[in-house]
Specification:
Blueprint lengths: L3 H4 L5 E4 L3 H12 L7 E4 L3 H11 L2 E3 L11 E4 L3 H11 L7 E4 L6 H8 L4 E5 L9 E7 L5 H11 L3 E5 L3 H31 L4 H19 L5 H8 L5 H11 L2 H24 L4
């Protein structure tokens, strides 16, 4: 994975919005060696500014001002519903910065119109970025150069794995899989814990067993064998595992997951149109 500091040693970086995801990105960059004094965060909340200043030692401001003119990269980390207004309030203070948007659901044409730029990278991180294990898909507008791509990759790599896709539509698919996917896993773990409790384990023991089992499965899967192969190795003919899997298949669990991912993918496209003011 790229070292952010090797790619961007002197780059001035500004965040518009200082919420959880921005904080995770900043923490990753600082941990990787970036000088926190090179980072400016525009954040209206005085409590959040104080938190950022004390915990991450970054510079902050309550609103856009002349300091933004020095930024080589501006990360838009505000809610999508307020990005348009934030852009209007901020544009006059910006130089020729690369724009990196982590605001969900806003496609490149809309971002380009609001930010009046074609140097835009749109990214979809997931919340595992908060523990340095994020997955982030990225798509670039037409004005993004190879150097800009390297710069965006270096910034987002500080929170985990990142990769490029070729269109807004493909980023909608990223949203449906890795963006929303953590919730699918948590949903499964929640149900798995409840099932363990139903056969007699107390809640703390059930949670511990479920987490250790899931972690072990992921570690095995990392060795590279297909998931189906790994499953079959655990499943003896007419054994306990087969009995359990037969129930999951009979209740339509595999199809339900396919349907769930498809629903998330379609909703991501609908939200892009809604947030952009496009006709449905």
């Amino acid at each position: 994975m790229s070292n952010p500091t090797s790619e961007t040693p002197e780059r001035a970086l500004a965040f518009v919005g200082g919420g959880q995801m921005a904080s995770a990105m900043i923490a990753g960059l600082v941990k990787a060696g970036r000088d926190s004094s090179s980072i400016l965060v525009i954040e209206p909340s005085s409590d959040q500014r104080l938190h950022l200043e004390q915990s991450l030692r970054v510079r902050t401001a309550p609103c856009a001002d002349a300091q933004l003119a020095d930024a080589d990269v501006v990360v838009w980390a505000v809610k999508p519903q307020v990005l348009r207004q934030a852009a209007l309030e901020t544009r006059a203070h910006l130089g020729a910065a690369l724009h990196l948007s982590i605001a969900a659901g806003l496609p490149l044409p809309t971002l380009s119109q609001w930010l009046q730029s074609e140097r835009i990278v749109r990214a979809m991180p997931n919340t595992a970025a908060l523990v340095g294990a994020g997955v982030t898909g990225m798509v670039a507008a037409t004005g993004v150069s190879a150097a800009d791509r390297a710069l965006a990759t270096a910034i987002l790599a500080a929170t985990g794995h990142c990769f490029w896709v070729e269109s807004d539509e493909r980023l909608d698919a990223v949203t449906a899989v890795s963006g929303s996917g953590l919730a699918y896993v948590f949903h499964f773990l929640e149900a798995f814990q409840a099932a363990a409790e139903a056969v007699g384990f107390d809640a703390p023991t059930a949670r511990d067993l479920v987490l250790r089992t899931a972690t072990g499965a992921v570690e095995q899967a990392k060795l590279g064998d297909p998931f189906g192969t790994l499953r079959s190795r655990v499943t003896s003919k007419r054994g306990t595992t087969e009995a359990a899997l037969n129930v999951l298949d009979a209740t339509g669990t595999p199809q339900a997951l396919r349907d769930a991912v498809r629903a998330a993918y379609e909703r991501a496209g609908e939200l892009s149109k809604e947030l952009s003011g496009q006709p449905g």
